[in-house]
Write a structure and sequence with these properties.
With about 150 residues, the protein is mainly α. It contains 8 helices and no strands.
Length: about 150
């Protein structure tokens, strides 16, 4: 996925928030784009709350139950918010949001990155789905050492 205009990003965010985004379009890249948009428009704490609340709302609207085995996943959501927050700090140069989004999606296109930090058993547990859990394979500290996002969990 490559964005050409800010309007494309805003259209994705709007469709997600209005719960009209087709489920097939709610991809890893879409998650990252929405999270990026929230982190560039709100405080980190507000971005966390927006992602948390709106993913749950979107899931319900599209027929996905938020249970101990499916739907919203706190640890995965906060993992990616931390990655994106740190990415924004490293991309402090003046870029348009479209450019930042395209670079972000290219850099973090592998949704499996989370499994470099978490064992499958831990990440797929109810505890990790419902609460932030620190990684058990390797620390995230180098990804977010300059980020304030850790203060809001």
């Amino acid at each position: 996925m490559t964005y050409k205009t800010l309007a494309e990003i805003e259209s994705l965010v709007g469709a997600f928030e209005d719960c009209v985004l087709p489920r097939s379009c709610w991809t890893h890249q879409a998650h990252l784009t929405v999270a990026l948009w929230y982190l560039t428009h709100f405080s980190e704490e507000q971005a966390i709350n927006c992602m948390r609340d709106r993913i749950r709302k979107y899931n319900v609207a599209t027929g996905v139950e938020n249970t101990k085995n499916s739907g919203y996943h706190e640890t995965i959501t906060l993992f990616w918010l931390r990655v994106i927050s740190n990415y924004l700090i490293s991309e402090i140069q003046v870029y348009e949001l479209v450019d930042i989004a395209n670079k972000l999606l290219n850099t973090y296109k592998n949704s499996g990155l989370v499994f470099e930090y978490y064992s499958r058993n831990l990440l797929l547990s109810f505890v990790a789905r419902s609460n932030w859990i620190e990684p058990n394979l390797k620390p995230l500290s180098y990804l977010f050492e300059n980020s304030k996002i850790n203060e809001h969990i």
